[in-house]
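INTERNAL AUDIT FORM
Audit reference: QA-55
Scope: verify that the stored structure record matches its stored sequence.
Auditor: D.O.
Record contents follow.
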Amino acid sequence: MSPTAVSEVNPFAGRLEVLVDPRLPGNAWRLFADPAQFPVLEYAYLNGQRGPQIEMRDGWDTLGTDWRVVLDFGCGVIGWRGSYLNAGA
């Protein structure tokens, strides 16, 4: 590769988005392709629900209102071609 301009030095400049999650341990990093081209993860709502189900009732033991939110949700891996794992240093 012989770049002739500063913008040609890194072919991925401006094409990747950095996302940080402190819950992932160690120094490993992951690279994912555009989900429209190579989907890796899929999610779905279960039992025909399209989002969280919210229920409300007047409080009996306390002054106020009781709320309950139920989310029937599932996810899973559907392909590996759109992902890369680097174990880190």
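Auditor finding: record pair retrieved intact. The radius of gyration is 22 Å.
Action required: none
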